UniProtKB/TrEMBL annotation:
Keywords: Oxidoreductase. It comes from the Bacteria. This is Alcohol dehydrogenase iron-type/glycerol dehydrogenase GldA domain-containing protein. SUPFAM superfamilies: Dehydroquinate synthase-like.
């Protein structure tokens, strides 16, 4: 087993009705002036926002709420909220929503804690040295941002939109309230995209350049099997509490780092993350659903990189899908096809043509590849390092 440091400080409060503990948890973690971040209105329409506000009010906690976060969250929204939170003199940020809301809350927490700073500075190299504490009431099982140290924003103030991410343990929420019933009114498309995102957070760590921690592999493979089983059930029947609860817990575990522990020095396994980079370029330019961008590129990526370590794909096919017959090449392809079938069962695209709604032309693919490679200034991936030409080839193969 490789040496590692594993850090996962978020307190998970799981179950029906647990949002009632929001004020108690805010106080426990030092909050007295709470800035509430939420999305496009569903939190208000469902009554959840009002219930949380009443819970805070009854506990004597001052609060101010701000909405308008959209999928693929925007720098412009985060900047507006930073000004509002500063004016309110917030000392705690509470996110009510999914990954986009939580990532925006993280941006607000980082920026408010650094007087005179701008959100985008932290997304372009400035180190996060302090942050306001964050709490989460989760309403979408997908991004795992409720337990992760990462956050992603799209800069919509530039001539060409660009999407970037940061990682800092200061962004880990103090607590996350997980009530599966809060996800039962989601559209089936969002549930499917969320299940795909959960699968891919595990895949990005599983297909790592350095291996050697067998328990980590077993945990990852178990998570794969669970989300493959319960994801389609959740899409078929969002009122299925067992399916929705399994999906919610899988989402948090998939991005807390546990499925990537133990292969690079003193850190968690580095992972690959190429599919996320390929997908982020698509959603930066075209504002496509994050989970759907991942399913549209994964099959092409897998077939392009499989020869870097065929045995890893063989193990994936056997341990996740029970595929044991045939040559190594046959089993690898069968595992990729089984994953395509899983994505289909979630209602997700498995090609760029399906994602975009048209067959992309070469110029369009080149624009995606330029965004993904930061105008040919970086490579991506760890399982196999990919430069601009590789990235373009994967996009072409994904048509």
């Amino acid at each position: 087993m490789q040496k590692f440091v594993y850090y996962a400080p978020t307190e998970i409060v799981f179950g029906r009705g647990e949002e009632a503990r929001a004020a108690e948890l805010v106080k426990h973690y030092g909050g007295s002036r709470v800035f509430v971040v939420y999305g496009g209105g569903s939190a208000a329409k469902s009554g959840l926002l009002g219930r949380v506000e009443e819970i805070l009010r009854a506990a004597g906690i001052a609060f101010s709420a701000s909405g308008g976060v959209v999928p693929n969250p925007l720098v412009s929204t985060a900047r507006r909220m930073v000004e509002e939170a500063r004016a309110f003199r917030a000392d705690f940020i509470l996110a009510i929503g999914g990954g986009s809301v939580i990532d925006t809350a993280k941006a607000v927490a980082d920026t408010v804690a650094a007087p005179g700073s701008d959100v985008w500075e932290f997304w372009t190299g400035r180190k996060v040295e302090t942050a306001l504490p964050i709490g989460v009431i989760l309403t979408i099982s997908a991004a795992g941002s409720e337990t992760s140290n990462s956050a992603v924003l799209t800069n919509d103030t530039l001539p060409q939109h660009t999407k970037r991410g940061i990682n800092t343990d200061l962004n880990r929420p103090k607590f996350a309230i997980l009530n599966p019933e809060l996800t039962m009114t989601l559209p089936k498309w969002q549930i499917g995209a969320g299940a795909a995102d959960i699968f891919m957070h595990t895949a990005e760590r599983y297909f790592a350049p350095i291996l050697g921690n067998h328990l980590t592999d077993e945990i990852a493979e178990g998570l794969f099997r669970d989300v493959i089983h319960f994801g389609p059930l959740a899409v078929q029947n969002p009122k299925d509490y067992e399916a929705m609860s399994e999906l919610m817990w899988c989402g948090s575990v998939s991005h807390v780092g546990l499925t990537g522990v133990g292969a690079k020095g003193d850190t968690a396994r580095e992972g690959d993350w190429a599919c996320h980079q390929l997908g982020m370029a698509l959603s930066a330019i075209g504002d496509y659903t994050h989970g759907a961008t991942l399913t549209a590129v994964f099959p092409a990526w897998a077939r392009y990189v499989k020869d870097a370590n065929p045995s890893r794909f063989v193990r994936f096919a056997e341990k996740v899908y029970g595929i044991k017959e045939g040559t190594e090449e046959v089993r690898i392809e069968a595992g990729i096809q089984a994953t395509e079938h899983y994505f289909r069962s979630l209602g997700m695209p498995i090609t760029l043509t399906e994602l975009l709604g048209h067959t992309p032309e070469k110029k369009e693919l080149e624009a995606f590849a330029l965004e993904c490679s930061y105008q040919k200034t970086r490579s991506i991936g760890g399982f196999k390092v990919l430069g601009y030409e590789d990235i373009l080839n994967i996009y072409e193969n994904a048509i």
